Amino acid sequence: MKADSPKRLRHFVENILPRYDELRSEPSVDGTTRLSSYLHFGFLSAHEVVVAVNGSDAPQSAKDSAAQSYDALWDATQRELLRTGEIHNYAHMLWGKRVIDWCATYEEAFELLEHMNNKYALDGRNPNSYAGILWCFGKHDRAWGQSARSSASSAT
Question: Could you give the residue range(s) of every CATH 1.10.579.10 domain in the chain?
Fold first, then answer.
């Protein structure tokens, strides 16, 4: 299966992507990516797919159609980032954590998130923006429950 992943990606980019917006809903033809199992098992990364799609000669409308995942919330968040340059804080967290799930390593996920953030976010390359990316990896996470302040005041 691993050896087939580059072949399937190449087949998708060269043969399916140019007409993806019209073929993807036609069950009688090989018109979808069929990359999910390769992504799921780590044989391909989301980053590899993005690079291959963006580097193709396919029409922009086909590239836009292919830029959809199985996660409607992630797709909506990505569209919000592309259209407005901003994402709500909690949606940003979900957006980033999904990218982490889709990538083979944390380093790859960070590279992709940093790239998308710096390219599309109005506050890209800003220290606060980097903090938002790092939040997706657990920085600033804290346990739920009483805060230290309320615990201290109830002890008196």
Answer: 69-142
Is the full-model pTM beyond 0.85?
no
**Any residues with CB less than 8 A from the CB of 143 and at least 6 apart, and which?**
none
* Per-position pLDDT tens, the chain of length 156: 778 889 999 999 999 999 888 888 888 889 888 887 888 788 888 788 888 988 888 887 777 666 677 788 888 888 888 888 888 888 889 899 999 998 989 999 999 999 999 888 888 888 888 888 999 998 877 766 665 555 555 555
End-to-end CA separation in angstroms for the chain: 63
Write out the CATH class of domain 69-142. Answer: mainly alpha
